[in-house]
Write a structure and sequence with these properties.
nine-stranded mixed β-sheet; globular; Rossmann fold; 3 domains; alpha/beta
Length: 487
């Protein structure tokens, strides 16, 4: 791949349409199995969607909300980025009240919804100021246009728009574990840098690979850590609407999948599925998991079942992308030698050129094996842009280019010099501000620190502060101002 020519979503869509025109990009592996879209068709359909929305009066900067389970059209909807519009994927598991909060916060001009969810949106319409158009992936109905009809009525020419790498491509909401969900503003350029790291350093993808997308596409892991890199590399991706163990096993076999992204609980469900050994999974090369560490016993069972498949873990955030990785060879070492089993409790090393600094409450760097209590893991700010768009409400997350870093509410246990891996645990309760001011000098009382990692002691802390400093992003470009911040 010539990365020098790929700076925005549209570059990747056009390049793949030319290089892999007749190759299947996405295939529905679920109940509508057989529905397939080639790379050329995907690009054409994205163009038609962009041109149709331009006909509706939407333009660069307008938001398009997506409420749907996984399906090929979901990726096409992300393709509104070709015109500089901003995709807003929504968690379909949220309650109507929670969805309303996100819709009012993001202020979309158009909502795209799966037929099952149109009734929920209808109940919220009276409170959705600014939403001018409603489109369903199913047949047309009262108040809803049919997606396929919208595409059919629009030309397939490339949309004419001035889209730059620093433009926002996606507004992706965090899970809200430390407060209300916040919209992380993800730019074209930063997502492509994250994508390149995933292709070259993490998944080691080639165009012959076949991915299975079962993690939700409203989540950064399912979309930006896995499906987007597969799409960008010219791989075929089989798509499942949601996780169901037997459907996953059947898709892995039937589509000759080489890599899949899961969480450990999913892996556990797969190996406990009756008849699991009936499925031919001989092509499966990588099982990529995230969300938590994996118990050694579960890993041994999974290795026994999946044979030659390598296991790969990453840690990242919605705002920062992929930060660290525990590679297959490190999983193998942990299983072979009990002395290295503790590796499985870590989230690995910084990926590629990412840099992480850990500092104590006096601003001093914490060395491996230090007795000082490290407070914060500081990943790079490779995704979130520098300022809030005026059209967004104050709760949208802010990371300032003046500050130059992203603070994560994560604690780290420093490893010894012979085990330079990172062990993280989330702060279980943090008071979070919703101010839009990019002020680095706010002090948030950390109410309690509860370890989810057996290698880390449970701690309680009230009112402590930690000084941290900025680092580099995934491209190894130094931040312009490595300021300090008290959090």
């Amino acid at each position: 791949m010539d990365w020098s020519t790929l700076s925005v979503w549209g570059d990747i869509a056009k390049a793949n349409a030319a290089a892999h025109a007749g190759k299947v990009a996405f295939v529905n592996a679920g109940k509508s199995a057989g529905t397939a879209v080639t790379f050329a068709q995907a690009n054409d359909r994205m163009n038609r969607l962009n041109n149709a929305l331009a006909g509706f009066g939407l333009a660069k900067g307008d938001r398009v909300a997506i409420l749907s389970r996984n399906r090929p059209e979901y990726i096409e909807a992300y393709g509104v980025a070709k015109s500089g519009m901003i995709a807003v994927p929504l968690n379909w598991r949220l309650s109507p009240r929670e969805l309303l909060d996100l819709l009012q916060d993001s202020r979309p001009s158009l909502v795209l919804a799966e037929p099952e969810f149109t009734s929920i949106v209808d109940r919220l319409r009276a409170e959705l100021d600014g939403v001018r158009h409603f489109v369903t992936f199913g047949p047309a109905k009262a108040g809803w246009l049919a997606y396929e009809a919208v595409l059919a009525g629009a030309p397939g020419e490339e949309p004419q728009a001035d889209v730059a790498p620093d433009d926002i491509m996606c507004l992706m909401y965090t899970s809200g574990t430390t407060g209300a969900p916040k919209g992380a503003m993800l730019t074209h350029g930063a997502l492509i840098r994250n994508c390149r790291a995933a292709i070259e350093k993490l998944l080691e993808l080639g165009p012959e690979d076949v991915a299975l997308a079962v993690m939700p596409l409203f989540h950064v892991g399912g979309m930006w850590y896995h499906l987007y890199p597969s799409y960008a590399r010219g791989c075929t991706t089989a798509i499942l609407a949601e996780f169901e163990p037997r459907s996953v096993l059947a898709a892995l076999q039937d589509h000759r999948v080489t890599n899949v992204h899961l969480v450990p609980t999913m892996i556990h469900s797969l190996i406990d599925q009756p008849g699991v050994r009936e499925f031919d999974l001989g092509r499966l090369r990588v099982i990529y998991y995230a969300g938590s560490s994996i118990p050694a016993d579960l890993l041994r069972r999974a290795i026994a079942r999946f044979g030659r498949s390598g296991f790969l873990q990453s840690y990242g955030t919605t705002e920062a992308g992929i930060v660290t990785a525990l590679m297959p060879e490190e999983h193998e070492r942990a299983i072979r030698d009990p002395a290295h089993e503790g590796l499985l409790s870590s989230c690995g090393r910084p990926l590629g050129r990412n840099e992480i600094q850990i500092r104590d409450d006096h601003g001093r760097a914490v060395a491996p094996g230090s007795a000082s209590l490290p407070r914060i893991v500081l990943p790079s700010t490779s995704i979130t842009p520098s300022s809030v768009m005026p059209a967004f409400s104050p709760s949208v997350i802010v990371t300032s280019s003046v500050i130059g870093f992203l603070v994560s509410s994560i604690l780290n246990e420093p490893r010894s010099s012979t085990c330079p891996f990172i062990v993280c645990t989330y702060l279980s309760s943090v008071i979070v501000t919703t101010t839009s001011m990019p002020d680095p000098a706010m002090s948030w009382p950390f109410v309690e620190v509860m370890s989810q990692d057996p290698c880390m002691a449970v701690m309680t802390a009230l009112g402590f502060g930690a000084w941290v400093r900025g680092v580099c992003d995934a491209t190894a470009t130094p931040v312009s101002a490595a300021a300090s911040a008290k959090v």
